[in-house]
Specification:
By secondary structure, the chain is α+β, with helices and mostly antiparallel strands. About 30% of the residues lie in helices and about 25% in strands. A four-stranded mixed beta sheet has the order 21-22-1-23. Helix 4 runs parallel beside helix 6. Bound molecules: uridine-diphosphate-N-acetylglucosamine (UD1).
């Protein structure tokens, strides 16, 4: 187990890169199962990525890793039973379902795991696959799927990111045309389509309200290294950290057009944001409230950024409110912020945050990925020293988070800990 020791109060200054997006890399890894030969993918150094590669290897893929590039050869991936322990560890294991079915006409798996941020059902994934001709039986916690994928017209009840990705991957090798209405439009969906198209898939409309896929018999391979887009949530987290601490940072690879909702809120708080190839933020550290944030599917405010915004709202002038519409259990970090002196009350899906003059360092514990990032931001902006346990959660989505922050001037160190900080 690891913890961060943070001494708050340092301004953040410098240039930095957010790196490859986890939420693009994970589905792209699943999609590598569909390729007709070797594919090379540039990957962020994250525990979720390691677990995903572990699953691919259990399914029979040959994997070579050189620095941040994985070369995956799925030609012997003829196993279709998902390894239970790894599947339960990460939510993205569910992305394997469409590709395994497309390859083997069979798939067997347990419900996926992931951070405890809500119920996270998979009904939209399963209902879409049923409409694509797959028989699905559930018995004693196991889900057995079998059948030939046949293109169909699908309408998603909710624009689920994971379900859209799964069904897109299933549609690529299905017989005939698959239409997905009301799909997710996140930039990572567009990136997955870019990867699939580089292998010969026929996809149109990704990023819009209708995706049309013309099934092909098989996909090819690609000689080029696939580089996922940069991580908009890591970029947003760094911007929020600078907003809260004060300073001047430039996130070189941040894609401003994917981050308009975040930029808008940071400007409302009084930060200067300059968009060029990347995003530069200048903050005095004296913030105003952003008034209200409500999370929605893209291009609405991303649920993966609400906790980080809550952390800086704690020290902003005035009252802010955050309504979480995507996941039902995403305020798990609030008690820790309160322990640091924040004034927050949660009413159902809405948190009301009344800004205080400053937060105080405390011993706190991360309980999920983005909540952990938010507590780190709060500790950086607070007076005094904090210990943040549960760094393993942060490692799921931020590669060397403490190194990124210390390169910008933060006083943060990783240490081994033997017990929880709380
Ligand atoms: C993805 C992201 C995650 C982000 C989330 C929402 C990855 C690896 N993860 O997660 O970081 O927080 O999008 O932007 O890309 N739902 C159902 N039934 C389903 C599927 C989803 O009811 O079959 C519900 C979920 O419970 C949740 C909402 O839909 O309330 C959004 O889930 P979804 O978009 O599927 O999120 P993920 O793909 O799990």
């Amino acid at each position: 187990m690891y913890m961060y020791k943070v001494v708050g109060g340092q301004r953040l200054v410098g240039d930095i890169c957010a790196g490859a997006a986890k939420n693009s890399a994970l589905p792209v890894l699943a999609a590598s199962l569909l390729s007709g030969g070797e594919v090379s993918i540039k990957l962020p150094d994250l525990s979720d990525v390691d677990d995903m590669l572990g699953i691919l290897s259990c399914l029979g893929c040959r994997i070579k890793r050189e620095d941040d590039i994985a070369v995956i050869d799925p030609s012997c991936a003829d196993r279709w039973v998902m390894p239970e322990k790894l599947s339960k560890k990460i939510r993205s294991s569910i992305f394997m379902l469409g590709p395994i079915l497309a390859r083997n006409k069979n798939a067997c798996f347990t419900y996926p795991g992931g951070c405890e941020i809500g119920l996270r059902p998979i009904d939209i994934h399963l209902s879409g696959l049923r409409q694509l001709g797959i028989d699905i039986e559930e018995s004693s916690g196991m889900i057995h799927c079998r059948g030939n994928l046949i293109g169909a017209r699908l309408h998603l009840d909710y624009p689920s990111v994971g379900a859209t990705e799964n069904l897109m991957m299933a549609g690529v090798l299905a017989k005939g045309e698959t239409v997905i209405d009301n799909p997710a439009t996140e930039p990572e969906i567009v990136d997955l389509a870019r990867f699939l198209k580089s292998l010969g898939a026929r996809i149109k409309g990704e990023g819009s309200s209708r995706i049309v896929i013309e099934g092909v018999k098989s996909l090819g391979s690609s000689a080029e290294v696939f580089c996922p887009i940069s991580d908009r949530i890591v970029a947003g987290t760094l911007l929020a950290a600078c907003a809260g601490c004060g300073g001047d940072i430039y996130v070189r690879d941040a894609r401003a057009h994917d981050m308009t909702a975040i930029i808008h809120k940071l400007r409302q708080m009084g930060c200067q944001i300059i968009v060029s190839d990347g995003i530069r933020i200048r903050s005095s550290g004296e913030l105003s409230s952003f008034r209200d944030i409500a999370t929605y599917p893209h291009p609405g405010f991303p649920t993966d950024m609400q906790a980080q915004m809550a952390a800086i709202a704690c020290v902003a002038r005035g009252t802010s409110s955050i309504t979480e519409n995507v996941f039902e259990n995403r305020f798990g970090y609030v008690n820790c912020l309160k322990k640091m002196g924040a004034d927050i009350s949660v009413h159902g899906r809405t948190a009301i945050i009344r800004g205080v003059k400053s937060l105080e360092g405390a011993k706190i514990e991360a309980r999920d990925l983005r909540g952990g990032a938010a507590l780190t931001i709060a500790a950086l902006a607070a007076k005094g020293e904090s210990e943040i346990g549960g760094v393993e959660y942060i490692d799921r989505g931020y590669s060397g988070f403490e190194n990124m922050l210390s390169s910008l001037g933060a006083d943060i160190k990783r240490e081994i800990c033997t017990k929880r900080c709380l």
